[in-house]
Design goal:
7-stranded mixed sheet; 4-stranded antiparallel sheet; 0% helix
Length: 123
């Protein structure tokens, strides 16, 4: 079993930056592809970014491509989401998720989830 804990959320002004972290338990973190998803009030959860087990491959939703960057440090069992040029529409609860092997953009494909960290972007 994998336990995930997000941190780093907060309130920022539009155009600002924020870095989210997701700490995972266990000694097999490097066997899991990781993804970031977000959900705003009244909206469905949506894919944000994903990264392969080794960190060699990344993929982003069109809405965040060029602004966000996902990375991981397997030695620290941690995945990050660097968010730049934040917009009010980025406001949401951000969750990290883990999946054995290859990651996908579908939330139902992931096996483990963190509780999330709130990101609020003011205009």
């Amino acid at each position: 079993q994998v336990q995930l804990v997000e941190s780093g959320g907060g309130l920022v002004q539009a155009g600002g930056s924020l870095r989210l972290s997701c700490a995972a338990s266990g000694r097999t973190f490097s066997s899991y592809a990781m993804g970031w998803f977000r959900q705003a009030p009244g909206k469905e959860r949506e894919f944000v970014a994903k990264i392969s087990t080794s960190g060699g491959r990344t993929y982003y939703a069109g809405s965040v491509k060029g602004r966000f960057s996902i990375s991981r440090d397997n030695a620290k069992n941690t995945v990050y989401l660097e968010m730049n040029s934040l917009k009010p529409e980025d406001t949401a609860n951000y969750c990290c998720a883990a999946r054995r092997g290859v990651g996908t953009t579908m939330s139902n494909d992931y096996d483990y989830w963190g509780q999330g960290t709130q990101v609020t972007v003011s205009s």
